[in-house]
Amino acid sequence: MHRSTxxxxxxxxxxxxxxxxxxxxxxxxxxxxxxxxxKVELDLNGEGRLAYRVLREGKPLIVDSRLGFIxxxxxxxxxxxxxxxxxxxxxxxxxxxxxxxxRFVRNRYNELRTGFSEKDHERxxxxxxxxxxDDGIGFRYEFPQQPTLDAVEIVEELxxxxxxxxxIAWWIPAxxxxxxxxxxxxTPLAEVGIAQTPITLRTGDGTHLSIHExxxxxxxxxxxxxxxxxxxRASLTPGSPANVVRRSPFATPWRTITISDRAAGLVExxxxxxxxxxxxxxxxxxxxxxxxxxxxxxxxxxxETWATGPRHGATTANTKRYIDFAAANGFRGVLxxxxxxxxxxxxxxxxxxxxxxxPTPDYDLQGLAAYAKxxxxxxxxxxxxxxxxxxxxxxxxxxxxxFDKLGIDAVKTGYVCDAGQIxxxxxxxxxxxxxxxxxxxxxxxxxxxxEAAAKHHVAINSHEPIKDTGxxxxxxxxxxxxxxxxxxxxxxxxxxxxPEHEVTLxxxxxxxxxxxxxxGIVSLTGKHGQEIGSTLARQLALYVALYSPIQMVADLPxxxxxxxxxxxxxxxxxxxxxESRLLAGEVGEYAAIARKARGGGxxxxxAINDRNPREVPLKLDxxxxxxxxxxxIHRDGEGADWHGAARFRFVREAREVKRGDTLTLWLAGGGxxxxxxxxxxx
Length: 682
Ligand code: NOJ
Ligand code: CA
Fold this sequence. Notes:
Blueprint: H1 3-19, E1 26-32, E2 38-44, E3 50-56, E4 59-66, E5 69-71, E6 81-96, E7 104-118, E8 125-133, E9 136-143, E10 151-157, E11 160-163, E12 167-171, E13 185-188, E14 194-195, E15 199-203, E16 208-214, E17 222-226, E18 232-236, E19 244-247, E20 250-251, E21 254-260, H2 263-268, H3 271-274, E22 290-295, H4 297-301, H5 316-329, E23 333-336, H6 365-374, E24 378-384, H7 389-405, E25 410-414, E26 422-424, E27 433-435, H8 440-455, E28 459-462, E29 478-481, H9 489-492, H10 499-507, H11 536-545, E30 550-552, H12 557-561, H13 564-572, E31 577-586, E32 590-597, E33 603-609, E34 614-619, E35 628-636, E36 650-658, E37 662-667, E38 672-679
Parallel strand pairs: 22-23, 22-30, 23-24, 24-25, 25-28, 28-29
Antiparallel strand pairs: 1-2, 2-3, 3-4, 4-11, 5-10, 6-7, 7-8, 8-9, 9-20, 9-21, 10-19, 11-18, 12-13, 12-15, 14-17, 15-16, 16-21, 17-18, 26-27, 31-32, 32-33, 33-38, 34-37, 35-36, 35-38
Helix pairs in contact: 5-6, 7-8, 11-13
The protein binds 1-deoxynojirimycin (NOJ) and calcium ion.
């Protein structure tokens, strides 16, 4: 053979060796958490497909999980990648929340930034960024600006979460008609169909995981479905013409996995908040965390109505009664639903009649706002859209301006309609397009509302919302939301909430952020006498167990008059906190949470239980050393239970305690306990 031919052949062989698909994947980059517990490795396999895996203390927790996209207007972004660049950095800061479960939040992680491009002529590029905390990871895709990937229409995100071990999962179904308002399933992970996030998992060795997302901005909400091989895979909420339509440059929301040995670690994590951008509204001291009452439970009991007529709840006289009740008991807010034009007729099916500037004839909005002010109370506005969302957007600026003028600085919004039935109309009289509550268009809508409201110093509490992904850090006027099966189901739900439901919420929905659950139904009775599956003490415990910076005192004033001892706790309990800890609990079984009142020395404990009675010993090692405390204990009385007259067995007693003591609480089936710890002076 000619020498030059031989050299050419050897060269070709070398080239083949270099370019040929490797038999196995190569780890091309890795990053560990600050304390080294967690490690993320990024692989490129022989086809140039990207995958990540997570190791915990050296053991696989998430095994090779693919990354990529299916696009509508372009080829898939999936294989043929090469790593162009990588860089790492460490970050550690402590930031302050204007309001929250804790005042100071430590944000400490190691970051790995990787840049990939396709090996073909188009050289399309994508970056993947990992932030690895000691209690979990977040990662997102970034689409750099590039001519070959300018308009991006994402049909599906192929992100996978392949859990190394079998696990139990707590989850609610995605894409079902009743949005987020479902009881939780507890199933083997292998039986998850399509789930919303956050989803909570516990593996065989007791590791707890919560998979969710952070900073859902201008993107479709992520659901998780089981792929053919048993892995969980992202499934984006539908949108048109594609689930996500963006122009580069942009970043996806963070995909998050919170990880802990104990259920408490999930509850105490700030990972979701940390992956959001800092406050961009500046001073939000105009929002004060508070408790509120209102024309609400009566509507769900159907003793009063949203619609005008003989049983209209939002009348001037009735609202005055609630204002007086709020003022007499130190509650700042009075919510009134059914105050505006549009409720008459079938509002569930038609939101286009709502007028958010026009009170009903029997409701003196100006006079009531002035009356409230004279008593140191604030009306809370209500904007039920009935899902006619574009119709609402056309009015919202004027509506917030009106409220601003009247001293109304918090508004409850609502999006009642079946999933996928949000009505979007881009031009007046144009075609109406149906959108999903969790879709990209609604992610933009909610931010438009927050920005419009912030201009008028109005805070927003959204019902039937998009899921919470920690955006309260960036827009601290997004104070609360519903986004789960709330107390209203105890009025008319079939079935009502089970004793497990609220206990499960602590470890699932509440990991996303505050919930306007509306606790405190001391009458323990819904519509037509339906029993609420809760003891009296448990209704008090919910104020501490389910965090929200606004908490409703949801029952009727006349019902509180019948339970003065229980009512005292509702008056005393704080709503804004310096610190929060889960003292004891297991997912879906029980939870005992302690929180320290913001800016004061008092602590509160809320404990809630599933249907199995139990004793919970709580070590009071969080109290200040050398101080004595008066523990005001509100607990289930002997024989209490979540059925029948036993629901009302209740004891209020006081005892002196100090740091290091153990407080043992007996919780009835479906029961709970609420404790106030007041430092004793001198
Ligand atoms: C559903 C909300 O969750 C509830 O609180 C409200 O009363 C109704 N919609 C009417 O807006
Ligand atoms: Ca609701």
